[in-house]
């Protein structure tokens, strides 16, 4: 196993929210043994303390990593979001501290899409009500209010990875698909873009939301948008709880204007399975409520475990940052005959000159150099033919350059 400037057994990996065992296996088989694993998220103060003592942190959607936590985490090297969404992480603050954040952008896409399509059918048939009645001895065999999804219009808000998959599956059931996105997207199958959110709401029998949590999507579906939906239209939200004003949705269902809803994400979600869940949508007709399990299939979780842990290991072992969400991306080759120096710095003019002068002053030959900048940070990787002692000296000198955020040496 390759030596790193910091022994692997001393690199502390903190894994929260019951990430898949595949993540632990990936770290262990790469030689990382100092792993703290928790099944749940931690309360804020405990989380801050745990993050401050870790080098690598892995979370899912429930742990909020705040700017303050990044400011107080001198050791922290990298963060893994073992999910798609990264809105729970102060990405700019992580970047400013030279900390890359990795996620799994597609590993649970299909799981969410399958659930959404299943829910569309269930809501169209008013299965939630019929199911409840049968469980308490009722028997209301009737076709009233039940429809096929074939021939109906599905409106997708946010036509990205999940939205497009939902569209493809829905078309295979004979649905007509329209979508609204703020970016121009390649339409799959016969899907048609529409010009505005309100146009989509007015034309769709079922509206499904697949946008990220951003300032632009916060509360984007409130009373006016619900009123713009077709009478009896159905709403599915498996994106983020802050996208829908949940009280307005409850009112629209009570009034009968919205014919039902399937909701997987909520503005406030319990921190763990022991905490009670309260929502204004409870016990309303034709409503499916699920505990944020859109991406929770064993296939998805296992894939996410491998994928994100592998990205973290690759960054720690080799310096590659490919697919980091907040950081300059470099995909680095192996460096069998060189020592590798990593230098993360504030993105400011003159930095590369200072770095290169340092190498010529030391008369050390550079075998390869990689530079990438993004936002507030620059990332330079330098492979050198140098002795261990020379490389250590270079690392110390690199660290002394004003504007340096982090330096590492990989043998
Ligand atoms: N329920 C779950 O368990 C679960 C699982 C996975 C993902 N998610 C959520 O789903 C979201 C979407 O995932 P994805 O992989 O499809 O993301 P994505 O980035 O591939 O797609 C999001 C799309 O939304 C569009 N968009 C952004 N702002 C918009 C706006 N204001 N109006 C219309 N479109 C807008 C983007 O341009 C993009 O095309 C994630 O960010 C995450 O929050 C939830
Ligand atoms: O962003 C995501 O991938 C989903 O919200 C799933 O999050 P989870 O891993 O906490 O279930």
UniProtKB/TrEMBL annotation:
Keywords: Amino-acid biosynthesis, NAD, Oxidoreductase, Serine biosynthesis. Its EC number is 1.1.1.399, 1.1.1.95. GO terms for molecular function: (S)-2-hydroxyglutarate dehydrogenase activity; NAD binding; phosphoglycerate dehydrogenase activity. Pathway: Amino-acid biosynthesis; L-serine biosynthesis; L-serine from 3-phospho-D-glycerate: step 1/3. It is an enzyme of class 1 (oxidoreductase). Residues 340-411 form the ACT domain. One of its GO terms (biological process) is L-serine biosynthetic process. Belongs to the D-isomer specific 2-hydroxyacid dehydrogenase family. This is D-3-phosphoglycerate dehydrogenase.
């Amino acid at each position: 196993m390759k030596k790193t400037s910091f022994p692997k057994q001393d690199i502390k990996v903190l894994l929260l929210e019951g990430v898949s065992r595949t993540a632990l296996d990936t770290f262990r088989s790469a030689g990382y043994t100092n792993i703290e694993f928790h099944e749940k998220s931690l309360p804020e103060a405990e989380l801050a303390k745990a993050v401050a003592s870790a080098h690598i942190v892995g979370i899912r959607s429930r742990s909020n990593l705040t700017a303050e936590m990044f400011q107080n985490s001198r050791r922290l090297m990298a963060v893994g979001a073992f999910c798609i969404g990264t809105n729970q992480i102060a990405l700019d603050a992580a970047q400013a501290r030279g900390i890359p954040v990795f996620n799994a952008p597609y590993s649970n896409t299909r799981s969410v899409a399958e659930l959404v399509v299943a829910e569309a059918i269930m809501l169209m048939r008013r299965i939630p009500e019929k199911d409840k009645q049968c469980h308490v001895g009722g028997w209301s065999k009737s076709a009233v209010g039940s429809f096929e999804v074939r021939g109906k219009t599905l409106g997708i808000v946010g036509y990205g990875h999940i939205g497009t998959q939902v569209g493809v599956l829905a078309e295979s059931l004979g649905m007509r698909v329209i979508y609204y996105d703020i970016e121009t997207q390649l339409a799959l199958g016969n899907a048609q873009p529409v010009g505005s959110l309100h146009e989509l709401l007015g034309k769709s029998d079922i509206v499904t939301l697949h946008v990220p949590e951003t300032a632009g999507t916060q509360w984007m579906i409130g009373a006016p948008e619900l009123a713009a939906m077709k009478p009896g239209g159905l709403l599915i939200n498996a994106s983020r709880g802050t996208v829908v004003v949940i009280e307005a949705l409850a009112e629209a269902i009570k009034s009968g204007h919205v014919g039902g809803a399937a909701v997987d994400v909520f503005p406030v979600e319990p921190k763990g399975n022991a905490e009670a869940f309260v929502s204004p949508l409870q016990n309303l007709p034709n409503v499916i409520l699920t505990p944020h399990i859109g991406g929770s299939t064993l296939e998805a979780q296992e894939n996410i475990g491998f994928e994100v842990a592998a990205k973290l290991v690759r960054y720690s072992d080799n310096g590659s940052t490919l697919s980091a969400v907040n950081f300059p991306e470099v995909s680095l080759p192996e460096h069998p005959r060189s020592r590798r120096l990593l230098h993360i710095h504030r993105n400011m003019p003159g930095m590369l000159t200072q770095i290169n002068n340092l190498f010529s002053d030391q008369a050390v030959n550079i075998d390869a150099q990689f530079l990438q900048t993004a936002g507030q940070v620059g990332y330079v990787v330098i492979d050198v033919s140098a002795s261990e002692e020379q490389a250590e000296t270079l690392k110390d000198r690199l660290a002394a350059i004003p504007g340096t955020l982090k330096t590492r040496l990989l043998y």
